[in-house]
Amino acid sequence: MGHRKKGTQQSVYTKDLKDQMYGRLTAMLEAGKGRSKKVDALTGADRDKIYSYSTYEAYFKHGKYFLNYVRERHPECTTLKAAEKYVAEWLTYRIEHGAEKDGKPLSVWTLDLERQALCKLYQIRPDDPQFVQLPKRRREDIKRSRGPAVRDKHFSERNNWEFVCFCRGTGARRSALEKLEGRDLFAKTEINKRIARLQVKQAQGKLSPEEEQDLTALLDAATQFPDHEYFICWRRDKGGKTRYAPIIGPYKDKIVERMQNTAPHDKVWLYVPGNADVHGYRGEYATAIYKMYARPLDKIPYDKFRSGGRDGKGYWYQSGVYHCRGDERGKKLDKAAMIKASKALGHNRISVVADNYIRDL
Fold first, then answer.
1. pTM of the model
2. What are phi and psi of 97, to 5 degrees?
3. pLDDT tens across the length of the chain (361 residues)
């Protein structure tokens, strides 16, 4: 909330730090509407833009943590510009002391989000070597959905069996489940018709940025999963992207039936249980997709030649095999199946699937 300066004939309204941040981030969100982040990134035009509301919300949330710190430690600071000099101090404090309330250490993922939020707010280059560097991320440090958690005691899979099956068969994120509507079910025939319609518009040069993104997602679904009959459209999922995920598993008919029995603009799930391990079910979905398409490793051809080697004569290797790193060093995966799992989840890098989703292989 702003305040009025006293001691003058006419009061002057002055915005406080949070109002100033709100104005700056909101302007970036408006500037990013209808634009392609991928295209803007090629020219560096993405630095002063935010492309999804969920990203805006996350940046605003963590920006407020920073401004609360500035207000408490440096009350004389009244402008965003003046607060910038405390960014490094704040990030260092968060790395060393963790969360404010309970003092628990923050994960590298949370610290990276806070760093990104402040980089966006102050237009700092994230790759600037002079800026605060974070500890390296390690797969073994991931805590979410790794074994039993306290909240699991307060959630009954038996009493919420339909919801659990829905998650395992669709790879949903919690936020996307809360927005899912009956119109978001697509049969393979509908996807093919939509592709044909958009490709006509593309040939005419009439595709909007949103339609361009939709066409890319549709083509991914059609080319990666031609053997599946039904898909769920996750509209403006994480990062503002849309994806079409195949419905899989022994209960896919029940999932399709629930979608078909929901009116087009009605919510499929009026209530998403807060204690349900949705991320864990998403991992099960990814693993099931991977197993569905993975080839035996000894059947993947040695198709590439690399010079050198111990004897200097070079050697053939399997370019289609992914070698895991870190605590899973030595484990090998089929890259082609990983790509399919990645597309189904809405990710672009197969390393994300290997590090966070594919399990117990």
1. 0.66
2. -110, -15
3. 455 555 555 555 578 899 999 999 999 999 998 888 888 888 888 889 998 888 899 999 999 999 999 999 999 999 999 999 999 898 888 888 776 555 567 777 788 888 899 999 998 887 777 677 776 655 444 555 445 544 455 578 889 999 999 999 999 999 899 999 999 999 999 999 999 999 999 999 998 888 998 999 999 999 999 999 999 999 878 777 889 999 999 999 999 999 999 999 999 999 999 889 999 999 999 999 999 999 999 999 999 998 887 777 888 889 999 998 877 788 899 999 999 999 999 888 888 888 888 887 7
| Residue 259: burial class (beta carbons within 10 Å; 0-12, 13-18, 19+) | buried
Beta strand ranges found along the chain (DSSP E): 3-5, 12-14, 185-187, 230-234, 243-246, 304-306, 315-317, 321-323, 332-334
Q: Reduce the DSSP state of residue 192 to 3 states and report it.
A: helix
Q: Token pair for residue 16?
A: 């406080």
Measured CA to CA, the distance from residue 199 to residue 212 in angstroms comes to 9
Residues 6+ apart with CB under 8 A from 226: 188
**How many secondary structure helices (H) and strands (E) does the chain include?**
14, 9
